[in-house]
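[READ THE FOLD]
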Amino acid sequence: MKNNEYICGVGGWLTLLIIIFMVLSPLLGFGSLYGMIKDVESLYSGQLLDSKWASFKQETWIIYAISASVSFAAGYRLLKIHKSESVRFAIIANWLVGPIANVAYVISGALLLNLRVTDQIHASIGSIAGSCIVASLWTAYLLRSKRVKNTYHQH
């Protein structure tokens, strides 16, 4: 593709981002959360099945549901609503679904299970840092891509 060629519409990396938002992020998030809960419950069997654990599970599923909904909405907007507001929403969603959701899980665990926040952050630093890197890369793409600028009329 030549540098001066006009590219517009959903395609390339933009298609991948839409698939991530609408399909991969919600499915992988569900699988990860479900697996974590099942692993903890099988490891501790009946010991953790108290009201704190039940509250924690409920809270994490609520965080997941909000995150998955925001993710799907961001992908849908990028796919169907070709306005600059869709790009802004996608950038915000990128950070909400990744780093902010990860921090929310940490805070939820600390508060509901009476765990130390610093221990929780230490245990989750890899996923938080990784999600910050991914969110940064997609944000840079959404802000710099000619296809995105042309498709969503950002001039």
User: Anything to note?
Assistant: The radius of gyration is 18 Å. The chain has a mean pLDDT of 91. Helices lie at 12-44, 51-80, 84-112, 117-144, 146-151.
